[in-house]
Amino acid sequence: MILYEYPFNERIRTYLRLEHLFRRLGELVPADSALSHHYALVTIFEIMDVAARADLKADVMRDLDKHKNVFNSYRGNPAISEAVLDQVVGKLETNFATLNTIPGKAGQALTENEWLMSIRSRASIPGGTCEFDLPAYYAWQHRQAHERRADLERWSSTLAPLAESIYLLLKLLRDTDVPYKVIATNGQFQQNLPQGRSFQLLRLRIDPRLGLIPEISGNRLMVSVRLMRHEADDRLHQSTEDTPFELTLCA
């Protein structure tokens, strides 16, 4: 099954973008090639760009604290394991405390590294990191793989507390509901959302053998899915078939 996710607000959209970048970074850093490490460094710069939003760290810390208060309200419930509850609350408290010790925005410490910032300013220019533009960076790319990796791990460690908090918040959000099966009639599906619940994330799973691509839209009142097919003319055309898929609405 292919999983598609659709955020209902800008905060969750930012979290998903950061998670995507952190996962990419996690695959590129362990590699050995200089090209992989170049794109790992570019990914660090992308994370810094996304994390530069002034209120991002405050949003993450607010969400961590909100989840902690919700879980603490379950104490004394016989249906809830106190040991598991302690473990989750402990993770939330640890992430909150670690983020709180970092001054300024996530990645701000890296902006004080003039060498990195010289690469960052050229990386946004097509072909801007050629050897004649950045000879010092070109020389760095010719170092041993383990040396480059050590540098990347040192630089990305300043972003690790944000990554761990984002992973935890999205896991808790994804675990709030269970998937159910629906049918897109003639390739289209619409559902009114129940009042009184604030949904933040839609998750859609579909069989890749169907060759269909969901176009998702939604707001606090309704979600809509249109199933498209990538045809030989390299354009998307709407399917007219009745098609099953799984849907999860996370509040």
Task: Give the structure's gist in a few sentences.
With 251 residues, the protein is α+β, with helices and mostly antiparallel strands. Helices cover 47% and strands 20% of the residues.
Strand count, sense and barrel status of the largest sheet are: 4 strands, antiparallel
Q: How many E-type strands?
A: 8
Order of helices and strands: EHHHHHHHHEEEEEEE
Helix fraction, binned, reads: 40-55%
Q: Beta-sheet strand percentage?
A: 15-25%
* Class inferred from helices and paired strands: alpha+beta
Q: Termini separation (Å)?
A: 23 Å
What does the average pLDDT come to? Answer: 92
What is the molecular shape? globular
Ordered list of secondary-structure elements with their pairings:
Elements: E1 2-7, H1 10-28, H2 34-51, H3 56-72, H4 82-100, H5 114-123, H6 135-141, H7 145-156, H8 160-174, E2 180-184, E3 188-192, E4 201-206, E5 212-218, E6 222-230, E7 236-238, E8 243-250
Antiparallel strand pairs: 1-4, 2-8, 3-6, 4-8, 5-6, 6-7
Helix pairs in contact: 1-2, 1-8, 2-7, 3-4, 3-8, 4-8
Give structural notes.
With 251 residues, the protein is an alpha+beta fold. The protein contains 8 helices and 8 strands. Helix 1 runs antiparallel to helix 2 (34-51), helix 2 runs parallel beside helix 7 and helix 3 crosses helix 8. 20% of the residues are buried.
Keywords for this entry:
four-stranded antiparallel beta sheet, 20% strand, alpha+beta, 8 helices, 251 residues
